[in-house]
User: Fold this.
Amino acid sequence: MSTSAGIVGAGIMGRMLALALRREGWEVTLFDRDTEEGANSCTWTGAGMIAPYCELEAAEQFITALGVRSMDLWPDWMQHFANPVYYKDGGSLVVAHPHDRIELERLRRRVTDNAPRPDIMREVNEAQIRELEPELGERFSSGLYFPFEQHMDNRGLMHAMGATLQRDGVQWLTGMEIRAVEAGRVKGPESWSFDWVFDCRGIGAKQDLPTLRGVRGELLYLYAPEVNLSRPVRIMHPRQSIYIVPRPDHVYVVGATAIESEDVRAITVRSSLELLSAAYTVHTGFAEARLIETSVSARPALPDNLPRFFVKEGLVRINGLYRHGFLIAPALTEIMLAYLDSGTIPDVAKGIFEQETAETA
Ligand SMILES: Cc1cc2nc3c(=O)[nH]c(=O)nc-3n(C[C@H](O)[C@H](O)[C@H](O)COP(=O)(O)OP(=O)(O)OC[C@H]3O[C@@H](n4cnc5c(N)ncnc54)[C@H](O)[C@@H]3O)c2cc1C
Assistant:
């Protein structure tokens, strides 16, 4: 008889785990209070960059290692999805205006000191920037190029994962507010029993994970027919680096703020001004762009900003994906499957497994 799983939360973590377990022959039921689109999830807001090396600016090497593994795993996932997803592997470019060049140097040093391999970053001059992004060459005379990084359309991903869940026979209960996620049991308007329950509720799991906090992130969607960029461009700045991430048909995502707050109300004027002026200083073509949408969410973060598996027999809570959901979800899924298969924690992940205790629960 196949093993049964109840997964609560259909953001990137819940959807990917549901697909992976289904592939292994499990009977999977996925619960979410949202619709299939998932517009209230953090995943719906996320910019969709897979940038393990750029993230070294602030993240630990462990995140880089998970990200590098995920970069290897994403192509297989893309093959598996029922629909194609806008997904590119043309690298990322980091630039700085002359007065912020020290920030670029700081990033260069930090990556050099922590990089797993020397070829993951190259210094580029004006001509090389022009080769990569012809419309930026005259504005920036130096930058850093990370050739192996990837990016994707987060919303296209959610849609493709949704279609694949349906195709593969995952039972998906939308509009289902869950009030208790326990070992072997999920409780909402009724109660369901499973061999294993997985809590993938992101910030919605706060009642069971008291140290979980939200980090507010705001971003903008611009339609800019005069702008042609083919890869994510980050602009170094002393307060926060800002990025511009391409989507199909001249749409660009400009983000993102990082504010210690769980407030997910509309974007503020200050944040909009900062993001818009950063975009304009990169490319004047953004002056005529249309602001087509703003999006705000709270990144689910644990005190050390690393992900965790809180486990006990019949229950795993997977949380703390923070600003790295797209970067690390495939690697986390692979680790979880290895754990369920063997009953032992893979060496690489020993530091992020915790037995669920009274304090975490
Ligand atoms: C502005 C911004 C930019 C980002 N950019 C990137 C990026 O470029 N690259 C990257 O790797 N990461 C990025 N991230 C981070 C990434 O989006 C998150 O790490 C990821 O989406 C977290 O996924 P999750 O599945 O854990 O949570 P979520 O996506 O929030 O999913 C949780 C789900 O649980 C459901 N839920 C919660 N409570 C209940 C309940 N009681 N009953 C039923 N359902 C419930 C919710 O409806 C939701 O669908 C960004 C985040 C933000 C905010």
In short: The longest strand covers residues 290-301. The mean pLDDT is 96.
